[in-house]
Amino acid sequence: MRYWFPFPFLSLGLLLFWVLISQSVSPGTLVLGGALSIALAWAMVNLGPHKSVPGRVRPLFRLAGAVLVDVVRSNIAVLRVMLGRRGKPATSGFLTVDLTLQDENAIALLACILTATPGTAWLEFDRTTRQLTLHILDTADGMDWQHIIKTRYERPLTEIFQ
Amino acid sequence: MSELLIIWCMLLAQLMLGVAMACTLYRIIFGPRAQDRVLGLDALYVCAMLLLLTFGIRTANVIYFEAALIIAVLGFVSTIAFAKFMMRGEVIE
Amino acid sequence: MTVLDLPAWAAIPVCLLLLLGAGNALAGAIGLLRLKSFYARLHAPSLMVSGATILICLASMLTFAVLQNRWVFHELAIIAFMIITTPVTLMLLGQAALYRDRAEGSQEVPHKEEGLKTEAAVEE
Hints:
The complex is a heterotrimer. By secondary structure, chain A is mainly alpha-helical. Chain A has two domains: 8-47; 58-161, no CATH class. Chain A is built from five helices and three strands; from the N terminus they run αααβαββα. Chain A has helices spanning 8-22, 27-47, 58-83, 104-116, 145-160, and strands at 93-98, 120-126, 131-136. Chain B has helices spanning 2-30, 34-59, 63-88. The termini of chain B are far apart.
């Protein structure tokens, strides 16, 4: 079973994508999509990605909810900065955070979250010093970004991928 | 009544996306540095994709969706290639 | 079958989503135009993607679901694709800009600690 389906979730996702694009659930589509998804998962084995299994599911949903709220809220905040009074946004600056997160896929997920949230941009992560460099669009809105990243995102991620 | 609403909303949305494309075009032409131009190009791709999606809604034609998907893929690959080029000076390592 | 055949109960949300999405994209583009530094401008496309793409794709889904009575939402593919790829492009662009600024010795970007150490070692 493990041999035939090295990455079951990847195969499932590819099959879903195939069905969505070809806009039908006819048997032919399913067979072709299934064969393609299994073959592409085999191709993935050669790349040798770092495997990690999400241990607990409940923090994952809580994290997703928090991210959704944050995306909407920071969307509005960034809109206000961009359309605001003439001149540049109050103060934008760089920020460095020391990450304690070890799992590589968790760090990739954190990168996706921080980039999808307007207002924070991921610039660089140094593997040797475990230091992350961010750019914050508006540092003057009274939010402690270091604290937010540490408690709001990093703690649930370590809970999920431990 | 609803027809009039749809016509004007479509027109307004397309106008807004067109102005957005013009803004990104300004960044591509006058961007002070190379990374600004690449960022403008990336935003231009996104705007073009959105404009195609609105065309698709307006004509109720699914073919625009495929074009939008292709533009999204092309924009991704070209931006990656440009960023790699700026970092290393060569695309294929 | 055109979009004008939409019943009123569907036309209003479609128009609202469409206008909000296009307005979001326009705001992102204006931000791209107005903000002063490259790193601040890096935030504009993420606004376009997370706001505008999702809203316009939702409008498209709603239109085709009502008009053609189909429930295969292939616009979800575009949303998923954009959400997955945008972090990668913006991260790479940010890294490239950081690398170029550091190579020019700009004082406005944070320096890498190892880089400073090796420079000191070279001087010794």
